[in-house]
């Protein structure tokens, strides 16, 4: 399906496909601790913005 969309858009990647590929690449390069850290940072930022 993604390949079909690429061919119709002059071989340009859709935002959906770019996001998926970027997420897969990030998951390969980082471990569980990376995701825990960014989740913690997001939680702190959210808490600080709501107080």
Automatic annotation (TrEMBL):
Upper classification of the source organism reads:
Bacteria, Bacillati, Bacillota, Bacilli, Bacillales
Top-rank taxon of the source lineage equals Bacteria
InterPro entries reported in the protein's UniProt record: Stress-induced_KGG_rpt
Q: Where is this region: Disordered?
A: 1-51
Q: Give start-end positions of Low complexity composition bias.
A: 1-11
Pfam families, alphabetized = KGG
Q: What is this protein called?
A: General stress protein B
Compositional bias ranges of the Basic and acidic residues kind: 14-51
């Amino acid at each position: 399906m993604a390949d079909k969309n690429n061919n119709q858009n002059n071989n340009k990647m859709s935002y959906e496909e770019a996001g998926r590929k970027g997420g897969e690449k990030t998951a390969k390069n980082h471990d569980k601790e990376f995701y825990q850290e960014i989740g913690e940072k997001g939680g702190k930022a959210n808490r600080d913005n709501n107080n």
